[in-house]
Amino acid sequence: MADAQVSKYMLKLEVMPENEKLFGLCNLRILSRGDLGVKTVPFLLNKGLKVISVSAQNTELSFSQELTRFSDINDLIVNYVHVDLSPLPLSNNRLDLQIVYEGRIEPYANVFKYVQDRISEEYSLIRPDAFSYPVIGVPDFSKLIHMILSQTFEYELDISVPTHYVVANIGELVSREIKDDMIIYKYRSKLPSWRIDIAIARFETVYDDEKDIRIFALGGDVNHAERLLYETKRVLDFYIRNFGEPINWCGYTIIEIPSGWGSQADVCGMLLDKRSFVDKEAIGGLYHEIAHLWTIKTREKIPSRFLDEAFASYFQILAEKELLGKNLNAMLERARKRFIQMCQKTPLLADVPIIKYGEYKVTDAVYYIGVWVLYLLNKIVGEECFKELIKRFISEYAKEGATIEDFISTCIRTCGEYTKRFLNDWLLETRGAKLLISGEPESNIVQLYIKR
Question: Which pTM was predicted?
Answer without folding.
Answer: 0.84
